[in-house]
């Protein structure tokens, strides 16, 4: 500010100058801004809880003081699984980091789309901005094979011809991201009644016999298991699962009645009365059906 008087009699005018600074108060007219987008990350499902998974979230605010103080939080898309922390780098410059709150499971959720919110701390006119973080979960081989159509049971007549298709057995790798091939085998078929042709259980060359002691003692029920094994590189065995197979063997009249003796000899008096049991005769007929 300068003040100059009027010249008198041709003399130089006098000038007085004063300097004053007028402070301009900041108004919260700049919303926070996310920089470095898009944000994306790929995670292995076996990453440990508590791990920091992403820290490249930058937020800037052109305002000053508390109008430039930023808080970053999660709004939707997986806030129960991921936590957000806010770190101040400088005035109006903040960094957000994501960490894992609980274990991941590819088979349950293979991807997330988090919505983050950056809010300034203005008390009069708070402003905010949002950004998305795309998170892809990478599958890890941590699940055994699963049987698709279990439980397995069937009713089968004894002496059924070889190659008869009893039932279908289907299994697959429990990991769906990069599944391995699965090999099916029979375990515990001690009588060798059955075999697997691809994924079909069929009768073997040996006829099924309901009267065999191992079957008969269980009331005509024959049980064994099928085993599904993952193949690593199509060769090495990996994780496996087992499922019980129950076969109810129904009876066929294939047994001839038998007397306990081939010849019976007894002596009776000639005057024995009609209807009298023959003394000493012990005749027993048995049928194994």
UniProtKB/TrEMBL annotation:
One of its GO terms (molecular function) is calcium ion binding. GO terms for cellular component: plasma membrane. Residues 35-147, 148-259 form the Cadherin domain. It is found in: Membrane. GO terms for biological process: homophilic cell adhesion via plasma membrane adhesion molecules. Keywords: Calcium, Membrane, Repeat, Transmembrane, Transmembrane helix. Its main location: membrane. InterPro entries: Cadherin-like_dom, Cadherin-like_sf, Cadherin_CS. The keyword Membrane applies. The keyword Transmembrane helix applies. CDD domains: Cadherin_repeat (cd11304). This is Cadherin-23.
